[in-house]
Write a structure and sequence with these properties.
By secondary structure, the chain is of the alpha+beta class. The chain is built from 19 helices and six strands. The chain has two domains: 279 residues, 2-methylcitrate dehydratase PrpD; 125 residues, 60s Ribosomal Protein L30, Chain: A, CATH 3.30.1330.120. It starts with 5 loop residues before the first helix and ends with a helix.
Length: 455
């Protein structure tokens, strides 16, 4: 191992982080993200990818084992990390962070759950690992873009998930560095997961990274070594994948530096994050449109990154899959104006209704230089509706609901949990679970929390 390597910097930070050094508000944000992640898991439970992942998980009754949400059957920690990771991500409703590389950092929670259960960890250790995972992934996202080079953002998640899993599984410093080296070597994933007509794998890519990360931690704990230095080596991550990564001098808690989890965004709508303000603006405009049939044309003014991810490509105007629809700016704006909302039902039979698809054809998407300058500090979108009468109606939103500048309240986060879980758990059970999460630091074993979700 190379002294002073980036892998060692990440590991030393995480292993030195203690629950007592995490500010109370940051710990509360971790609990809010956990509630949000469980909401997404419940909402996705009946989806086809979730079923496939559960059926692929082997039943295990000895050794290291963890559970898949909703089941009392135990499986391997890596299989649980995959299945629970699919649940967190499938709806595209979990949290977001935008920087040189975007991320959905609550994806890390799947690896944390699997490792915490396997190692009989309590709430304090679990929350600390979550905060560390967010910190590591998002510092890497600040350091260099992967998307620009054709790699998927989940590659950074390998480092954060494997370190969080190593913390919870009790690896030594040397073992954790080796786990990082193993996970980093196998982590690069193609950005094709999020290009063109999107497939189920879009919601499974990070889950696969979580699976590999947990397995790497288990191997390293058993003595397996990994190639070093993983970042700076001749064929290392920086040389082949990311280019130079400029890590900030201080991480959360060091010399007064804030924690990255506090800067993440909770989604108010089940759609790709760059669309959130466009959806909000379109819904606000709906009240000014007496009859959608009177709409002549719609222009959505956005920023370059939003245009590249969700605003271009013929498939965005006639999406054939749920995954494409929730990554289509024209489709989402059309649904918001026609229906006055964007919800899970938007992706049901409604997605192929002729009136919605025809209305989508009226929409064009353009990059606005002024909005481009505001991104990523703000997530600006402007929706301009031209009526057949010639009247122009305009709506603009800079900070969508759920952004740190326009945060969701605790009650709104709880309501999201209850709404997405209503099909499976009673309101009394939901209140019990929420009460446990808000006081999670008092929980002796995270298994107690998972048992509450048995369906």
């Amino acid at each position: 191992m190379t002294e002073g390597s980036k892998a060692e910097r990440l590991v030393d930070y995480a292993l030195g982080l203690k629950y007592g050094s995490i500010p109370g508000q940051t710990a509360r944000e971790a609990k809010r993200r956990l509630i949000d992640a469980f909401a997404c898991m419940l909402g996705a439970f009946q989806s086809a990818p979730a079923r496939i992942a559960r059926e692929a998980a082997p039943a295990v009754n000895s050794g290291l084992r963890s559970t898949i949400l909703g089941s009392s059957q135990t499986t391997t920690p890596e299989a649980a990390a995959f299945a629970n990771g699919v649940l967190i991500r499938f709806l595209d409703y979990n949290d977001t962070y935008l920087s040189k590389e975007p991320a959905h950092p609550s994806d890390n929670i799947a690896a944390c759950l699997a490792a915490a259960e396997a190692a009989d960890c309590g709430g304090k250790e679990f929350l600390t690992a979550i905060v560390a995972a967010y910190e590591i992934q998002l510092r890497l996202c600040d350091g260099a873009s992967l998307r620009a080079k054709g790699w998927d953002h989940v590659a950074y998640g390998a480092f954060s998930s494997v370190i969080a899993a190593s913390m919870l599984l009790g690896l030594s410093r040397e073992e954790t560095v080796n786990a990082v080296n193993i996970a980093g070597t196998t982590s690069p994933a193609l950005r094709q997961s999020r290009a063109g007509e999107l497939s189920m794998w879009k919601g499974c890519a990070f889950a696969n990274t979580s699976k590999d990360a947990v397995f790497a931690a288990i191997l390293a704990k058993g003595g397996m070594t990994g190639p070093s230095p993983i970042f700076e080596g001749e064929f290392g991550f920086e040389k082949v994948v990311s280019g130079p990564i400029e890590l900030s001098s201080n991480f959360g808690g060091e010399d007064g530096e804030g924690f990255k989890i506090d800067e993440t965004y909770i989604k108010f709508y089940p759609a790709e994050y760059h669309s959130q303000s466009a959806i909000g603006a379109a819904i606000d405009l709906r009240a000014e449109i007496d009859d959608p049939l009177e709409v002549e044309s719609i222009t959505v003014k956005t920023f370059q990154t939003g245009y590249e991810i969700i605003g271009k490509g013929a498939e965005k105007w006639r999406p054939k899959t749920r995954e494409t629809a929730d990554h289509s700016l024209p489709f989402l704006v059309a649904a918001a104006i026609l229906d006055g909302s964007v919800s899970l039902s938007t992706y049901s039979e409604r997605m192929i209704d002729a009136d919605l698809l025809e209305f989508t054809q009226k929409i064009k998407v353009e990059v606005d230089p002024d909005m481009d300058r505001m991104y990523p500090s703000a997530i600006p979108n402007r929706v301009e509706v031209r009526l057949k009468s010639g009247k122009l109606i305009t709506g603009e939103m800079i900070y969508p609901k759920g952004h740190p500048m326009n945060p969701m309240t605790d009650l709104e986060v709880e309501e999201k949990f209850k709404n997405l879980g209503a099909w499976a758990i009673t309101e009394n059970k939901a209140d019990e679970i929420l009460s446990k999460i808000w006081e999670l630091e008092k929980m002796a074993d995270i298994k107690e929390l998972m048992r509450l979700f048995t369906i």
